[in-house]
Write a structure and sequence with these properties.
The chain is α+β, with helices and mostly antiparallel strands and 353 residues long. It has 2 domains: 2-45 and 230-352, no CATH class; 57-222, no CATH class. The chain contains 10 helices and 10 strands. It has an 8-stranded mixed sheet. Strands 6-7 form a two-stranded antiparallel sheet. Helix 2 (15-52) runs antiparallel to helix 7 (225-273). The longest helix has 49 residues, at 225-273. It is elongated. This is ABC3 transporter permease C-terminal domain-containing protein. It is a multi-pass membrane protein.
Length: 353
Amino acid sequence: MINIKLATRDYLDNLSGLIILFLQIFVSIFCVTLVLNQYQSDRKNYSAIKDAQAYNIVTFNSLNSSGSTHASNVTSNLNTIIRSYPSFTLYTDETIPGLNTYRLFGNLPQLVSTQFINQDNLLITSAHTNRLIINEAKSKHRIKDENIIFMDSILVPKKGSIDLKNTFLLKSNAHLETEILDSRITEELIHNLTVYNCSNEQISEISTLLSDEYSRFYPNFLNDDEFVLLMNTNNRLLLNFFIIVSIFVCINIFISLRNILNKKKREYYINRMFGLTKKDTSARLLVFIFFSCFIPCLISIYISTLFLGLNDSLFIEILTVSVLNIVLFLIFRNDLLKDDISSEMRSDYDKSY
């Protein structure tokens, strides 16, 4: 009990310094989480692109686009592309609030060799999606159980790797030319158009079908070695940046705690001279670090996830913070439990005056 009282007094005596430490921890962990999220996203995209290279995926970029709405014949031609060539596209379906849904047209390359090829009224999501959400989506879209496909993610080159947890791809039996599409949806469909396993002649035909008086389209080959190499280089740079930021975060926390504990070091030594055991001193230090560093780290991680979203690295962040606090405790404990207290007291006295 006395250890908690002493640790509480340590906390209150350094309240202003600990508030500054909390702000430093929050900003540092927020930046680390931001960088780590981006690295994980880029790594998933890179992995998905490497896997997709077997499909010879091609997208299309617009050249000299005026930004005007595409002519109606382009929508009809887009439907021709989807029905005549190995391809798919999608747009964000905002008609059903509360469900993160994309409406899919065409066939995903992963389904080409399955019984779902050319099948409509499909609902694609992750096996980790909440079952209640799946039932809600199945009911609203009138999908049978046998028409639900489970996939962890899909690659849409222009959007990256889409995590399908609590996200749905709806492939209906409607054709593009029968859909009432506004300019935003048309632009999104053309932007996300992805073809695969096509010959150079077919790719040229698709470019011609997409082009109109406003825009000219040219193919972008996902198998381009320079593109993949650039992504890999960016991932490595991001990883190095993450490591550097993490090291500075650890150094910053260590220096801040050391400065606070240096002010209390003389009191720790005096308490030991008057009978406070090493075990009591360790417990006092442990409680102090727990509330001044570990709890603020957890709060910072929680707040970061609220702003940046829950990510796969949450466990890694918590484990890293736990290890960091244990290391800090052992370092400061070794410093405060030195056997030669008198020399430390004299050294502290000489430095203070």
